[in-house]
Amino acid sequence: MLDTQIIQKLQAIVGPAYFKTDQETLVTHSYDGTPMLQSLPDGVIYPATTAEVSAIMKVLSEYRIPLVSRGSGTNLCGGTVPLEGGIVMVMHRMNQILEIDRQNLTATVQPGLITKQFIEQIEAIGLFYPPDPSSMAISTIGGNIAECSGGLRGLKYGTTKDYVIGLEAVLANGEILRTGGKLMKDVAGYDLTKLLIGSEGTLAVITEATLKLIPPPVYKKTMLAMYKDIQGAASTVSKIIENRIIPATLEIMDNPTIRVVNDFAKLGLPLDMAAILLIEQDGDQEAVERDIARISDICESEGAASVSIASTQEEALKLLTARRSALTALARLRPTTILEDATVPRSRIADMVMAINRIAEKYNVTICTFGHAGDGNLHPTATTDARDHEEIERVEKAFEEIFEAAISFGGTITGEHGVGVVKAPFLEWKVGSAGIQLMKGIKDAFDPHHILNPGKLFAKESRRRVVVQHG
C-alpha cells in the first residue's frame, strides 16, 4: 500500500490520469504471458518522456519502492510480474519513431513502439529491420531489447542485440545514461549497450534506442520439406549449414505441432509426417534460386518424403504465419500452455528432440516441439491444466530434465525467452557460481538498493543439478 505522499508525488510527475491504483488496473498488470504467475503491484504509472521516467525513479529510489518496467507483457519467463509489489511502469505512451537517418541507416525509437508497426513503417520506405519475434504484432521494441528477442530470421540476420547500437536509459537513482550511438565502431570503455540488452529490466529503464537498418532482400522463396522420421529432418539442418548455405528461415515442427497447426490454419498438411522443415531463403534472385535448388537436393538426400516450393507470395506468407501461430494453435488444446525454450548446437537437434520425447513419455505429459532449427533454438511446449497440481508437478520435473539435457548437449537453458523468475533456479547450471557472483556485482553497481525488477534472474536457492546422461 502506497503512502498518500508518494501517490501525490507520482501524480504530480505524470498527471492523475496516468498513475492508477484501482483494482482493475492492478490486476491487469499483475501477470504477463507466463502461465501460473501473478502478483499485484501497488500502482501503475504511464510516463510520456525520459524526463518523467527520471523523476519517477528519483521518487522510487528515495522510498526504496520496487519498479517493474514493461511493454505489452508478452514475455514467457515471468519477467514482468511484480513479485514484490511496488510500481509497474508501462511504456506504451512512449511509442514514436523519433528519427529515420537514411545517411547512417539508423532509426531512433522509443521503447513502447510495437515491433510489427515499426517493421512495416521501415519496409514502406525501402529499408529492413530483421528481428521478428513471433509476438511482434503486440510486443514492443523496448521489451524486445530487455529480453534480447530472437525470431524466425535469427539464423541469417541475428537477433535484437545485433541491431541495437545505442541506448538512452534511466538508472535506478534517476540519472540518465546514454550509450553507443550512430556508430559502426565504438570501443570506448565497456560495452554498456550490449550489457543492457537482455538484462530484463534489472539494470535500468530503457527510454530510447538507436537501431541499425539494412537494405532489404530483393527476392524470396519458401519451401516445405516433410519427413517420416525426425532424424532425417535434423540431419538436413546440419547438412544445409555444412554446405555453407545460411537460409533466412529454417524452422522445424514435430508431428503433434503439425497436427495442431494444420487444424488451426487449414493448410492441408499430411498428418503422418514425423517432422516438417519450413525453409525460406532471400537475397538476389540468382543466389536464392541456386540455394533453394541445393537445399531441395539436400532434403531429398536426407530422406525427405516430399519437398514443395510455395508458388506465390501469398502461399509463402500463409506458411510463415502458420508457423508463427504455433503457440496460439497449441493453446486451444488444454487450459494451460507452457512454452519453453532451450538451445543446443545445430548438430544436436535430433538428440534434443528425441530427449524431449523420452522425457515427456517418462513423466506422462504432452510436449509438442517446434522452433528455430537453424540456430538450434527449440520450443518444447507442454499442454496441461494448472488445476491439476499433480500433472503440473510432472510437467515441471520434465522441463527440469529438458534443461539438463540441453546443457549436457553443449546448449543453454534459454535462447531467447530470458531467465526472469521461471529459469532463475537453473541459471547457475549455465554460468556457474563465479558467473552468478559477477552478475550480482554488476546488479549492485547499477541498482544498489535492488529496486529494479527485483526477484528476477537470481534464485533464492539454486536448483540441485541432476546428473542425466544423454548419449
Map the helices and strands.
Layout: H1 4-14, E1 19-20, H2 23-28, E2 43-45, H3 50-63, E3 67-70, E4 87-90, E5 97-101, E6 106-109, H4 115-124, H5 141-147, H6 154-157, E7 164-170, E8 176-180, H7 192-196, E9 205-212, E10 219-227, H8 230-242, E11 249-254, H9 255-265, E12 275-283, H10 285-301, E13 306-309, H11 313-324, H12 326-330, E14 336-339, E15 342-343, H13 349-362, E16 366-372, E17 377-384, H14 389-408, H15 427-446
Parallel strand pairs: 2-4, 3-4
Antiparallel strand pairs: 1-2, 5-6, 6-9, 7-8, 7-9, 10-12, 10-13, 11-12, 11-16, 14-17, 15-17, 16-17
Helix pairs in contact: 1-3, 8-10, 8-13, 13-14
Describe this structure in words.
With 471 residues, the chain is an alpha+beta fold. The protein has helices at 4-14, 23-28, 50-63, 115-124, 141-147, 154-157, 192-196, 230-242, 255-265, 285-301, 313-324, 326-330, 349-362, 389-408, 427-446; strands at residues 19-20, 43-45, 67-70, 87-90, 97-101, 106-109, 164-170, 176-180, 205-212, 219-227, 249-254, 275-283, 306-309, 336-339, 342-343, 366-372, 377-384. Helices cover 36% and strands 19% of the residues. The strands form 3 sheets. Strands 10, 11, 12, 13, 14, 15, 16 and 17 form an 8-stranded antiparallel beta sheet that branches. A 5-stranded antiparallel beta sheet has the order 5-6-9-7-8. Helix 8 packs across helix 10. 49% of the residues are buried. Mean pLDDT is 94; it is low at 467-471.
